[in-house]
Amino acid sequence: MSVRSRGGVTGDLAKRNVMRRNWALLLCFGSFCAGMFFTNSRMWIMPEIGNTSRTSETSNKQLDIESKGCSSKVVVKNASTDGLQELADTQQVIRMINKTVSDLEMKLAAARAARETVHNENSVSGNLKTVESTSKRKYSMVIGINTAFSSRKRRDSVRMTWMPQGEKRKKLEEEKGIVIRFVIGHSSTSGGILDKAIEAEELMQGDFMRLNHVEGYMELSAKTKTFFSTAVAMWDAEFYVKVDDDVHVNIATLGATLSRYRTKSRVYVGCMKSGPVLARKGVRYHEPEYWKFGTAGNKYFRHATGQLYAISKELATYISINQDLLHKYANEDVSTGSWFIGLDVDYIDDRRLCCGTPPDCEWKAQAGNICVASFDWRCSGICNSVERMAEVHRRCGKDTEKPGETILGVDKYRKLCKRKYWWLDLRGLSAFSSEQIKTP
């Protein structure tokens, strides 16, 4: 009995164990199926990724077939090379855009500076009508003749030789686009006798450009800076020329020389030099800031000699925009050269802008190298220019038309002679049947 019952219990346990095994097998099978399902899903996805990778690799290579006749040439280009080229092109476009923006900003600043400069100049010289009438047209060059209150005789010697007067000067402006003015500021006592003398001379001659500047020998750098700023505001010219009033100039030759550089936007034309920095006090051209140029015996940087030089419109505009920041050295030509250091400027060294007086200019003309300007180096201009300017003009003036020739009556001619213009040749009076003669 007990054996049976014990056997019955054992049978029940066996059945339960079998059931548990079946459930375990069922769960294992279900897990296997689920694992196969997810595994198959990933196996189906992976080939797509692989295909995409292979497709992208294929797309990185371009196949170009060039056919010539019966032969074919296969060229494989790497897309990375095209990418670099596109990047270079993009950078080039960006640089062009930046340059355009920079040019526009410079023009805008120049317009603002011009408006302020013209406003200031109008308060000094009343040039509003002149500015309005000249702002719309284009000129080839503006020549500013640097002069002083005490240089009336020098100005007259220039007027009687290479500088045209009256209608001829107006014609030169209208037809050739060449503006010529004597450049002068005002005295320390505004409205004094010196200013009134210039105003009277201006009423008679009409060839002055008045600056908002106090005249003084030690202020030449400031005067030059103000001249360029004012000139670029009053006249839209290709070149702006600074010349001293004791230098002889062939205007036509100067125009022909500068016309060669019209394609250059930033050009600085003159007789380039780099003389020694003079540190010793009391000597001519002493440089108080000599210590900025290093040890004793050093030379200046490259710059044009101050008797005559020309700059393009872009450089004149640069001076106008930055006039409050530009440093002034003791010597005016050094100051001008310093303003262009660090800029991308074309330096033109043309020795025809610094010929000597006769016979030097005559010898060069005979060799076919006509001088633009003539002066004596030892005097930094024509020595005794009041007395010698006419002679230099007669022997060195090579323009086809003598712009300074004017018709004068004999009485006026004699009056000029009495005013110490003794170089006028009175021997020619008897050769004229009329009561008119030409001044040299």
TrEMBL record:
Cofactor(s) this protein requires: Mn(2+)
The DUF4094 domain, residue ranges: 21-114
EC number per UniProt: 2.4.1.-
InterPro entries: DUF4094 (IPR025298), Glyco_trans_31 (IPR002659)
TM ranges: 23-45
GO-annotated molecular function: galactosyltransferase activity
The entry's keywords: Glycosyltransferase, Golgi apparatus, Manganese, Membrane, Signal-anchor, Transferase, Transmembrane, Transmembrane helix
GO cellular component, as recorded: Golgi membrane
Any Pfam family the entry gives: DUF4094
Compartments where located: Golgi apparatus membrane
Keyword Transcription regulation belongs to the record: no
Domain of life according to the entry: Eukaryota
Uppermost EC category: transferase
Statement: the UniProt record of this protein carries the keyword Ribosomal protein: no
Membrane topology: Single-pass type II membrane protein
Pathway it works in: Protein modification; protein glycosylation
Family the UniProt entry places it in: Belongs to the glycosyltransferase 31 family.
Alphabetized PANTHER family for the sequence: BETA-1,3-GALACTOSYLTRANSFERASE 1-RELATED, BETA-1,3-N-ACETYLGLUCOSAMINYLTRANSFERASE
Protein name (Swiss-Prot/TrEMBL): Hexosyltransferase
Protein species of origin: Cannabis sativa (Hemp)
